[in-house]
Amino acid sequence: MRTLLMTSGGGFGTWGLLAYIAFFGLLLYFMAYRPQKKEKKRQQELLASIAVGDTILTTSGFYGVIIDMTADTVIVEFGNNKNCRIPMQKAAVVQVEKPDDAK
Questions:
Q1: pTM of the entire structure?
Q2: Which whole-number Å values give the CA distances from 15 to 23, 29, 60, in the listed order?
Q3: 50-97: which CATH topology?
């Protein structure tokens, strides 16, 4: 019987295939994982900086003023009506404007 041996005759070869996989792994890291990690860090810094009296923008698009806080929730007052106070999770805050910030 005759045995056929596989020879690499012009293909990628083992090293070429590994380089190809490494290239796409790095591409995935820089296009998907790294930006998501930076955004998560920015959001955590934003949530750590909020305080009572700050004007916030929520994920639903409402502007309000923080009147009370706990570890993971904030009570937000919306509009001029003092009776419109809603408890929300801190994660719903997407933008913070400090009272001393002037535009």
A1: 0.64
A2: 12, 21, 50
A3: SH3 type barrels. (2.30.30)
